[in-house]
């Protein structure tokens, strides 16, 4: 069945019935057992819990990997709450969104026709485009943090740690960027009600978290 991905005709014939075929397979290989466990979790809705999602960020200014973010968040959880989690306790997903052309404006690649030249297509120069279609961001990313189990306290800790890490990261951006960029980011932060804080302030803010 795994070879169907190389044969589009065979692939289109696959249905949800393949899930039951995998579950009832007698093959004891590790890969098959892992697949069975995943399917069983889907059937029983034993899914990871999304505990945090960042505001949209400009992808061209972001260079951290999911592993780096996860490590920083787990360190922040230990710093703020004195708890130690393993890398298998949470998952970080960095999702990139664009129009299929990274940072480029897809409209600039379109061919347009004129009523004066119905048989001739051309690219629309930026100087001729409406000012409403001015500078825009054509790609962004979201950072999501998932807890691998549904323990309420663990979800709360990961959520607070992720928020604290994000605020610290934004604070670092504000210190390194130029004045116009800094003003723009500050306006965005205010609109999203995000205030960078020190680790000490985080401790005071989250000290009321019930860890029992």
TrEMBL record:
Highest taxon, organism lineage? Eukaryota
Q: What terms describe the molecular function in GO for this protein?
A: dGTPase activity
An example Gene Ontology cellular component term from the record?
nucleus
InterPro entries the record matches: dGTPase-like
Gene Ontology terms: biological process? dGTP catabolic process
Q: Identify the stretch(es) annotated as Disordered.
A: 176-212
Residues that span the membrane, as ranges: none
Please state what the protein is called: Uncharacterized protein
> Which lineage is the organism of this entry classified under, starting from the top rank?
Eukaryota, Metazoa, Spiralia, Lophotrochozoa, Mollusca
